[in-house]
């Protein structure tokens, strides 16, 4: 796999030669648009909203819409002036406790590999990050217009660089309304916890697959062979509705094979009344 970026990872006065390689691969099924008559690929032409065209690239500019129908046009010189230039270094600015970072900030992972001569300091930094339970926070410019906040973590024996979102890219929870826990009854919570515990399992990512992609590949293979394939029909989506929560929890527990916790404590037995002794 080709390197995406080569340079150094710097923290303090230490500089480690590294290269960046993708830690994920795209597995989506892509299609071309074809002319139905003879399966000729369809080209995209550039027309204005008024129908003028096709337009050559030399007649096209980039504009930022400041309000409906009004634009500020930027030239190539403007973009060059704003560009930061490709960086040859990942500069670690801070080491932050891993649990203190909201997972919403992390976006795309890459492997950091040591270049020749960087193996020892690479291993040293990896173990320091592992044993302190921290994430290295820094910045990288991979292309002239691609400036990123990054986090450097440890996964096994690898240092993993994750592209991070900047703070102003996150939508805060205060923008929405979420239900609180007022009015929540203990029996309901106990039963919900029992259901969660009954479905507890070890993390195994291979259990979860993209069923839609698998179905598409089955159809493609069948068409290549001139055969027909029968795919399992998708179940109708359940409609959202207000339900008797306790009853649904009980039924879910029964399906999972777990015994529901009793919502009400058993009443204590009353002591039997003593009968009066018979007269002699």
Question: Please, could you describe this protein's structure?
Answer:
There is one protein chain. The protein is of the alpha+beta class and 280 residues long. The chain has a domain at 5-23 and 83-168: Ku70, Chain: A, Domain 2, CATH 2.40.290. Helix content is 21%, strand content 26%. It contains five helices and nine strands, in the order ββββαββαβββααα. The chain has helices at residues 76-82, 119-132, 186-198, 211-224, 245-256; strands at 5-11, 14-22, 62-67, 70-74, 89-97, 106-114, 134-143, 146-155, 158-164. The strands form two sheets. A seven-stranded mixed barrel has the order 1-2-6-9-8-7-5. Helix 3 runs parallel beside helix 5. It is extended. The N and C termini lie far apart (105 Å). Mean pLDDT is 83; it is low at 262-269.
Give the gist of this structure:
This protein has 280 residues and is of the alpha+beta class. 21% of the residues lie in helices and 26% in strands.
Name its key features:
Ku70, Chain: A, Domain 2, two-stranded antiparallel ribbon, extended, single chain, 26% strand
Indicate the mean pLDDT.
83
Supply Rg.
31 Å
Global shape:
extended
- Unreliable runs, pLDDT <50, ≥5 residues? 262-269
Order of helices and strands: EEEEHEEHEEEHHH
Distance from first to last alpha carbon: 105 Å
The largest pleated sheet is described as:
7 strands, mixed, barrel
Q: What is the top-level CATH class of the domain at 5-23 and 83-168? A: Mainly Beta
Which helices and strands appear, and what pairs or packs with what?
Layout (H helix, E strand, L loop, with lengths): L4 E7 L2 E9 L39 E6 L2 E5 L1 H7 L6 E9 L8 E9 L4 H14 L1 E10 L2 E10 L2 E7 L21 H13 L12 H14 L20 H12 L24
Parallel strand pairs: 1-5
Antiparallel strand pairs: 1-2, 2-6, 3-4, 5-7, 6-9, 7-8, 8-9
Helix pairs in contact: 3-5
């Amino acid at each position: 796999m080709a390197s995406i970026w080569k340079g150094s990872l710097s923290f303090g006065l230490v500089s480690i030669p590294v290269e960046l390689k993708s830690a994920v691969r795209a597995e989506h099924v892509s299609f071309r648009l074809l002319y139905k008559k003879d399966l000729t690929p369809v080209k995209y032409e550039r027309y204005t909203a008024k129908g003028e065209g096709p337009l050559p690239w030399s007649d096209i500019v980039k504009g930022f819409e400041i309000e409906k129908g009004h634009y500020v046009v930027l030239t190539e010189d403007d973009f060059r002036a704003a560009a930061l230039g490709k960086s040859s270094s990942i500069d670690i600015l801070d080491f932050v406790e891993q649990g203190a970072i909201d997972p919403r900030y992390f976006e795309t992972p890459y492997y950091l590999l040591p270049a020749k001569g960087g193996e020892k300091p690479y291993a040293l930094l990896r173990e320091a990050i592992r044993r302190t339970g921290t994430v290295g926070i820094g910045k990288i410019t991979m292309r002239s217009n691609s400036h990123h906040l990054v986090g450097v973590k440890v996964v096994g024996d690898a240092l993993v660089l994750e592209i991070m979102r900047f703070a102003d890219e996150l939508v805060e929870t205060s923008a929405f309304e979420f239900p609180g826990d007022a009015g929540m009854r203990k029996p309901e919570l106990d039963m919900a916890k029992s259901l969660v515990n009954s479905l507890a399992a070890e993390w195994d990512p291979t259990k979860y697959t993209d069923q839609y992609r698998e179905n598409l590949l089955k159809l493609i293979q069948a068409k290549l062979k001139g055969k027909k394939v029968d795919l399992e029909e998708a179940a109708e989506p359940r409609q959202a509705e207000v339900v008797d929560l306790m009853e649904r929890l009980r039924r879910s527990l029964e399906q999972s094979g777990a015994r529901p916790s009793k919502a009400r404590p058993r009443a204590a037995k009353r002591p039997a009344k003593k009968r009066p002794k018979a007269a002699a």
